[in-house]
Amino acid sequence: MAMNYNAKDEVDGGPPGAPGGAAKNRRPDNTAFKQQRLPAWQPILTAGTVLPTFFIIGLIFIPIGIGIFVTSNNIREIEGNVFMYYGLSNFYQNHRRYVKSRDDSQLNGDPSALLNPSKECEPYRRNEDKPIAPCGAIANSMFNDTLELFLISNDSAPYAIPLKKKGIAWWTDKNVKFRNPPGGENLEERFKGTTKPVNWLKPVYLLDSEKDNNGFINEDFIVWMRTAALPTFRKLYRLIERTEDLHPTLPAGRYYLNITYNYPVHSFDGRKRMILSTISWMGGKNPFLGIAYITIGSISFLLGVVLLVINHKYRNSGNTADITI
Amino acid sequence: MALCAKKRPPEEERRARANDREYNEKFQYASNCIKTSKYNILTFLPVNLFEQFQEVANTYFLFLLILQLIPQISSLSWFTTIVPLVLVLTITAVKDATDDYFRHKSDNQVNNRQSQVLINGTLQQEQWMNVCVGDIIKLENNQFVAADLLLLSSSEPHGLCYIETAELDGETNMKVRQAIPVTSELGDISKLAKFDGEVICEPPNNKLDKFSGTLYWKENKFPLSNQNMLLRGCVLRNTEWCFGLVIFAGPDTKLMQNSGRTKFKRTSIDRLMNTLVLWIFGFLACMGVILAIGNAIWEHEVGTHFQVYLPWDEAVDSAFFSGFLSFWSYIIILNTVVPISLYVSVEVIRLGHSYFINWDKKMFCMKKRTPAEARTTTLNEELGQVEYIFSDKTGTLTQNIMVFNKCSINGHSYGDVFDVLGQKAELGERPEPIDFSFNPLADKKFLFWDPSLLESVKIGNPHTHEFFRLLSLCHTVMSEEKNEGELYYKAQSPDEGALVTAARNFGFVFRSRTPKTITVHEMGTAITYQLLAILDFNNIRKRMSVIVRNPEGKIRLYCKGADTILLDRLHHSNQELLNTTTDHLNEYAGEGLRTLVLAYKDLDEEYYEEWAERRLRASLAQDSREDRLASVYEEVESDMMLLGATAIEDKLQQGVPETIALLTLANIKIWVLTGDKQETAVNIGYSCKMLTDDMTEVFIVTGHTVLEVREELRSAGGRREALPVRSPHSCPERPKAREKMMDSSRTVGNGFTYQEKLCSSRLTSVLEAVAGEYALVINGHSLAHALEADMELEFLETACACKAVICCRVTPLQKAQVVELVKKYKKAVTLAIGDGANDVSMIKTAHIGVGISGQEGIQAVLASDYSFSQFKFLQRLLLVHGRWSYLRMCKFLCYFFYKNFAFTMVHFWFGFFCGFSAQTVYDQYFITLYNIVYTSLPVLAMGVFDQDVPEQRSMEYPKLYEPGQLNLLFNKREFFICIAQGIYTSVLMFFIPYGVFAEATRDDGTQLADYQSFAVTVATSLVIVVSMQIGLDTGYWTAINHFFIWGSLAVYFAILFAMHSKGLFDMFPNQFRFVGNAQNTLAQPTVWLTIVLTTVVCIMPVVAFRFLKLNLKPDLSDTVRYTQLVRKKQKAQHRCMRRVGRTGSRRSGYAFSHQEGFGELIMSGKNMRLSSLALSSFTARSSSSWIESLRRKKSDSASSPSGGADKPLKG
After folding, report:
1. Does any CB of chain B come closer than 8 Å to the CB of residue A320?
2. Is CB count within 10 Å lower at the N or C end of chain A?
């Protein structure tokens, strides 16, 4: 778009921009940067570097893979703490409209957001002219079956395994992200002016009897609110702590699972599961990672061998023999 | 002003009355104020934004932004688009504003220049912008002409004045303009103030060489032509002052009318990129459609039932509509495959490369103190793809400096320099030039090294004396002596100047001339010769002669001319001398010198009288005057005595032959397009080694008709085909060589040539074979036919089969046509290089225009894309800067598309697991920052700094240039490879974490597979993988690269933790909902195991593939890198230079590059100063037409040889 005619050039007449004293400055500086002579490392993929890399990757990955695999397979003896999960299938917690349907200000205890929840919560924003607390589709669809586990012994009444409901959420969630609205001692008072989510049986301030596990900081609620990445997921439900008198935590025997069925999944072909598991340094049972490591390690090693052969067979005479980076 | 110009209907004619501002104001002509700036403070923002949104890319992003504001569609927050968009708009706006600021400044500077305007009878200083149409202004010597003026009068006789038009047309020789006789006597202010003539003329136009108008004054009409005009942009020379009437001002001047908007040039990479971007949009749409269909099906099958927990939006009433909305949602989140930062980054990289060109001290000319300049910043990578170079000759290949180099006098050759044989003391250094101090009139700048010539003059060798006497007499040079002893020669052609200057220094000083006499200082004594006749030069005669009478009364004819002509016209007694001189001539021609033969002839009085009579009759003849005169001249110029020969060096620019040789080795074809004559052009062709004597054949096409040209072209083509049979000189192995040439080019095309070990001798032999052995020389008038529609292909084919093509006598338009022809059919990148205004058209037409700066005219530079002051810098511009730019740009684009596909396609795979709901995989901040922060700087650093081989190597192995010409590094195939790699990466990037996360839990038992942890894991592995990839792609790790690559990683983690921190969440809980996520997720060993696994799987195949390619099919650059590493010193230094010594063939060109007619001008005395006394009588006889008056003047001076003497003349 520039005009071809440049008035400035007309001024100087001669070579453009050569007025008096400036002439000296026209000489480019002799710096390494301007002359593109910066010292530089110029790596080349040579046999000396590539082949060892492949072998090393192979040699590292295979043991790691085996380690992971063995660890993962060992997670079945019900020793130590046992974790009780509920699993849902075909449940789209990662749907865009679902994911955004929450108001983190409200959940963080912001009083104005409590009474005036974000528009993102529609259509679970207000009910009967009252703001919903907690608002949104996520909260509304909270899993509310109750699971109880009993050890059946022949000689006595079924022994209810103690299920710990605290310590199942991230510390940051419980202490930073989720807060009850400020106000008086009484939680009910703090939630005054709001109504319960449509699907809920009871309001949020009645989720639990313990004060530090009630309202927005109820851990079952927090766990639910941490949406899953995939449509089939499991969420931690309860902890079965190892106690001194039970060896192991869940001794062999017949167990009885009592489910209070509140949560319908049948309409959308959902499935519910209950999982009991222990964990290791790398979490729960995870065969994929171990197998993947072993496979990739082996491929890397094989590739190293193949490249070595090719390199020996076809390499350019004298070119690569003594090259190092 | 501009507004007013628009309202005005187009002018039909222009009226301007002198000294009558009121009258002229009626017409509202444009003032002399020029405006090249585009904005002012108020209009800047709206106008600039409007311009920017005309860019398709910007509008596209604006469209995306609007889409994002629709809640049902918005899959990303608005800031993911607006942040980059605003960034881009701001950067561009700042750049535009700075440019415009400088335009304002230069406008002001020009508009505020002072000029002297005649107002109310007095001269007043006025600024240029206040000069109006109809004003009379006074110009002084060496001043710029302020507007288009009608010359009224000047300090010179007859209202002549001299101007230099370098600004306008690039011609540096002076031109003469003359006032019409009635006004030329208006010498003083009082007369001028009363002048009230009115000019009616054509409306403003851009024709520089045409003007028609009429002056109405004192009830008389006087026709006006271009001869009476001084155009804006010219400089007044050798004229003390002149007065002019302003006809066109400011934007109406011919200079401004000519400065059209430059055509915007795009590189082939640009065009490819635009195509690819379109394809990507198509791809995007396909993805969108697939996902939209998926969404509709999902909503229909699953979504309707899932409404218990997730009801549809109010507006959505069917699965189909939901699918439609999700199409747009996906367009938004997938748009990052073509991020806006692509265009910005490309510009930044090009700007960087341009600065490297500006900063290159190896392209800085010490002598002229001019650095190279990239005037266009958008073409750099095209410099790495040039296949054809079109070069001007004068001023580009040559310096346009003629140097008296050697001479042969009476069979003795002078001028050889004995630096090697004679004085071996200082190798390579020339001994001191000879000392001319004995001669107070000598020109200090003249250098000559052979002392024997001076000795010969000093001992009074009569031949030598006669030789220099001839040089001092036989010419059309004008002399000027401002102060005693300070002689200046105004020569029509530099050749003549060189010869007269040589004579001057050797003691035969041409001092002054009048129409009838020439005064020469011969060895200190002034001798005045009577000038009887000038037998002027023309193209057919190829010689000029003077007939003089020396003080003793003897009449002698001195002649100089082309050897081919002159050697045939010698007296037969010269045979022996002729042989030796011919040997010398051959020797000179072999060195690429321009030769002239000198001869004389004594005439006796009677013969001369009789001859002069016949000449007069011939000159008065009505029909075929020219022919008759020529035959009269021919008669007297016969049986001449040979004096000797001169050899003038048309000085080549430094390093021209080497540059041409190197560029030829790089498979670049060089065509010379020159306005010069065939002989001169061919001569230069030889001296810069484009033409060589071992060429099979040089086809010369000079036909005047279509048929002739076709015949000549065909026969050239035919001879090429059937060479072994028809050419008696052809060697038997030539067909093999041709085959080899084709073979080698084919293999090079496939890139397989260099898998064998690199060996310099082998390389050379391949290159030698490619360098063909034919050359084509074509004349301008033949070219006109050859460029006609039905013959252009034939011409092009023949020309392209030739190794060298020289087009001579071509017009500026033809230059552009030739370039256009190659552009049209060859699909090759063309580069035009030139220095003058006659090159402007070709510079603008070619893909890349290069101007030679530091010359007097700057038109070429203004039109050019790159400028530097020496032709030899071209090799560095192309082989180093161009090659690197191309390489860097290609690597940049490959990586850029790769990283964005890897980044974006993850959403596509995720779509299948989230109900096609357009949920993003990553955090929105990651999406915003990925392209502008996390991955931008490392790839920019690679795009700006990367080098595959050091600069010396690209000069040593010109074949390294070839990948660019063949477009190997970035083309559709490479693009698909990058895309495939990107998609491959995205698949792993999604499915490996998917596989791991599906069943996993954290080490504290809680769920691992929550959305936020998944997002952080995928994002982190993506950043690490693309950083690894840029590490692999970077071939030249400077500290900056290290800093950017490691810095980007560090910044990623820093920003990640900051975004997930408590502080930000407390302030904006709804914006930073990832709080605490980074520390929770990245503390998990499983996550890190996943990241490592993903990285290895993504990178391993790339490394293996590249290693295999290096091993099995290395590029030349790879091999050069290897050898570099191994440090096997190869003696490649002298490889590039081909044989310099060459057996000389005779190429005699008459070295004059001037027009005929100056002889007449001199004899008429028209261009000599006359006293004011004589002025009136002279002008009374002048007719309005300058040329006619010239003719008449000449003929009547010829009729009465003494008749002219009654006019008092002063030297």
Report:
1. yes
2. N
